[in-house]
Amino acid sequence: MRKDTWRVRGLSLGLVGCDEQTAQNLEQQCLRLGMKTRRLVASSLDNDSAQVDALIFDSDNPDLNGGDAFPWPVLPRIALLGNETPSRLQWVIAQGIDGHMRKPVRYDGLLTAVSLALHNWQHRQLLEASVQKMEERLKARRFVFSAQLLLMRHFTLDENSAYSRLRTLAMEQQKTVEQFSIELVSQSEIQLGALSGK
């Protein structure tokens, strides 16, 4: 996906589960804004979605809204909303949409919906990557504590000195403290023997 979310010209939108009139209206709007469209079938999204930058789907289509969450490809998603029953809205929210448009689709609103969806999706991807990185670091912290205890016992160091030594050793090997700690704990005898000579 392009980094500049405000430039929609050249984007390709996949239309999923849209009726003929809605699809035609969207195609005309996209053409006017310099975007391309492809009509996609819900059952073959995995293969066909590689050729589009975002998806627009009709939330009223029974082929899509039969279960809790549809298996969407990792792309920005815009829901077309017609039926506003609580159960339908709950299903739309469960799809993790990045934008929405009201039905019937008219000749305005697409630029706003696409721009906001691209921005929201990009922001969500960054947040998810950040959370995943923090979770990995959190899991590795127990190894840092174990490595610190090993150094405290082996070199008779206090807690702060052991952590300082751990950081220095990690930097010398151009690794994070977490990476070095995992290696030290998993091969403690070999690693501590090598460190004793330092």
TrEMBL record:
Q: What organism does this protein naturally occur in?
A: Mangrovibacter phragmitis
InterPro entries reported for this sequence: ANTAR, CheY-like_superfamily, Sig_transdc_resp-reg_antiterm, WH-like_DNA-bd_sf
Question: Lineage of the source organism?
Answer: Bacteria, Pseudomonadati, Pseudomonadota, Gammaproteobacteria, Enterobacterales
Report the GO molecular function annotations: RNA binding
| Chain ranges of the ANTAR domain | 124-185
User: What Pfam families does this protein's entry cite?
Assistant: ANTAR
Q: What is this protein called?
A: ANTAR domain-containing protein
| Organism domain of life | Bacteria
The family database entries (PROSITE patterns) matched by this protein are listed as: ANTAR (PS50921)
